[in-house]
Amino acid sequence: MIGTRLDLERIRAARHVIDPVFLDTPLYRCEALGRALGCAVSIKLETANPVRSFKGRGTELVANLLRGRRETAAVCASAGNLGWALGWSGRRHDIDVTVVAARRASPAKLDRIRALGTALELVDGDHEMARQQAAAIARRRGIRLVEDSLDIETCEGAATIGLELVDRATSADAVLIALGGGAMATGVGHVLKALRPEVEVVCVQPRGAPAMTRSWHERRVVTTATVDTIADGVAGRHPIPEVLNDLLRVADDAVLVDETSIVTGIRMLWQHAGLVVEPSAALGVAAVLADPGRFAGRHVVTVICGSNVDMDAHRRWITR
Amino acid sequence: MIGTRLDLERIRAARHVIDPVFLDTPLYRCEALGRALGCAVSIKLETANPVRSFKGRGTELVANLLRGRRETAAVCASAGNLGWALGWSGRRHDIDVTVVAARRASPAKLDRIRALGTALELVDGDHEMARQQAAAIARRRGIRLVEDSLDIETCEGAATIGLELVDRATSADAVLIALGGGAMATGVGHVLKALRPEVEVVCVQPRGAPAMTRSWHERRVVTTATVDTIADGVAGRHPIPEVLNDLLRVADDAVLVDETSIVTGIRMLWQHAGLVVEPSAALGVAAVLADPGRFAGRHVVTVICGSNVDMDAHRRWITR
C-alpha cells in the first residue's frame, strides 16, 4: 500500500466521470527535443483541450460530486488555470462558480474566466490572500470551497494522467512533474508508485518558489515569505501538510531549477517541439537542462501541464 | 455511393493498421479563437505526434502494405511532411526510404528527415522537379514510388480523421480543410459525405498556389506555371486527374485565401489557441477571416494539419 490519501479504484472510476475531452491526451516521442537534451524525451500533452491545462480532470470530478449532492455553487482561489477549469466544469454541470484571483494575474487568463460567465473577484496581494478571501466567501455563503491539492478530487483527477502513462509509456525511466501545491505530483506519483514503482518520479519546482520542495527534503512543512518566479502556476508559499505527507510517499526526488532554465525550456519546447507552454510546463525540460548527466541516455516523460501564458511574455522568451 | 476511389470499409480497417500515436487526436472547442473569429471554432489537432503532421496516418498504411508484400524500399518527393512521415513509418516497418526534396526546403525539416536515417536527395527546382526525380529513382531501382494524393493509402489514411470527426464533432456545420494535392480533402470529404452529408466540406488553398481550386471550379485539370505562397505544404502546380475527380464528388466548395490572411491566421492560432502551426494549417482560419459573414454564428471545425514551420519565420509572423 502506498499510504497516501489517494485511492487507485477511485482514480480508475474517475475516468468515467471526467469529460473525455480531457482524457487520453497525446503521448509521443519528440526526437528533436531529445537530441537537444541528450536523452529520449516523451511529451504528455495536457494543453489541447478547452481550458489548455490538466486542471479540467480535477474540476470535472469536483463539479460532478457537487451536482450529485445537489449543491449549486462553489468558490476557489486561482492564479488562472484552476479558475478557468472550475468555471468550465461549473458551466457544464450547472454549478455557480466564483473565482478569486490576484489582481495582478495575467489579464488574458482573467478574461477567459469572465467569458465563461464565472463570477470573478479580484484581490490585491498574492495567491495566499486570494485563498483567504475564497475561504471567507465559502463561509459566508455556505458553499463549497475548492482547494487545489487539498481536495482529493484535484489530486485524483490529475492522477488519471498517471493511468495513461502506465498504459502507454511502457519504456519510461523517469517522469518529470511540475510541483506547486502538489495535486499533479501526488496524483501522478501515486499511480506510478502503485503500478510502475520502478519509474522515477521527479518533482520540479522553481528555485524562486521552493516551499514544497524544501518541505519534502526536510520532511516537515517549510513556508517562505515571498515567491519570485515567472511560473505563476506553481508559486505557493504555504505547503498543505496532508499533501506533503502524500508527496513524501510517492516522490523519488524534488529538485529546484532557476528562472534561466525555465525560459530556455520554454524556448526549446517552442523551437524543437512546436509547443507553446506556460512556465510551469517547462519545468521538466528545465530539470534536464540543470542536470543533464542525471538524465543522459535515459527515457524521460515530461508532462506539459498547461499553455496559459501571457503571449507578450512568451514572445519575449522565445526571441531572447 | 459517393463514387470516389476511396472505400469506407478500408478506411475503417485502416484504424487497426496505423500506429495509435497518430489516431484519436484532440478535438476541442477553442472559445477564445471563436470569439475572435465570430463563430464557434473546434480544433482538430494533428500536430501532437512524432512527425508533427497528419501524414503519418497515410504513411503507416503505405509501409504496412509494403511490408506485407515483402517490399523493402520506397521513394517519395516531399516538401517535408510526407518525407518525415514516410521516413518514420519506414524505420518502424523496416522499409528503406529515400526522400527527394527541393534544396530550398526548410533546413529544419530536412534535418529531421536525415535524423531518422532516411536517405535524402536534394534537387534544384521546385516540388514538380522533385517528383520527376523520385519517379526516376523508383524506375531505376524498381522500388515503390509513393505519390501523395494519387496513392489511395495517403487519402484513406487522412480519411481516418473524418471518422474521428463523425464520431465526435456532432454539432459541426462545416469542416475547413487545407487543399494541396488533395489527399486530406478527398479523404476527410469522402467520410463526411458518406456519413454526415449535411456537413459542409470547404477546401482552402492559397491564392498563390491555386491549381487544384481552379481545377475544381472548372471541373478539369488546370495547371499553373509557378507557385508563390508561404504554405509550402500545399504548393503544387499539377493537379492529379484522379484526385480531382474524387474532389469533385466530395467538396462543397473550394476557396482561395491571400497570404496576409494566412499570416494573420498563424498569429491568431498562436495568440488565441496557444498553437504553433505551419502555414497550411492556418488556411481554415484564413478562410473565415476572408469571408466572416459566411461562417458567422456557425460551428466550424478546422483541421490543424501540421506544425512543421521554419521557426525564424514563425517568430516573424507572430511579431508583425
Structural commentary:
The structure is a homodimer of 320-residue chains. Chain A has 320 residues and is an alpha/beta fold. Chain A folds into 2 domains: 8-50 and 152-319, Rossmann fold; 55-146, Rossmann fold (3-Layer(aba) Sandwich). Helix content of chain A is 47%, strand content 16%. Chain A is built from 14 helices and 10 strands. Chain A has helices spanning 8-14, 31-37, 55-68, 81-93, 107-115, 127-141, 152-168, 183-195, 211-218, 241-250, 259-273, 283-290, 292-295, 311-319, and strands at 27-29, 40-45, 73-77, 96-102, 119-123, 144-146, 174-178, 200-206, 253-257, 299-304. In chain A, strands 1-2-10-7-8-9 form a 6-stranded mixed sheet, with helices on both faces. Chain A has a 4-stranded parallel sheet with strand order 5-4-3-6, sandwiched between helices. In chain A, helix 1 (8-14) crosses helix 7 (152-168), helix 4 runs parallel beside helix 5 and helix 8 (183-195) packs parallel to helix 10. The N and C termini of chain A lie far apart (48 Å). The mean pLDDT of chain A is 95.
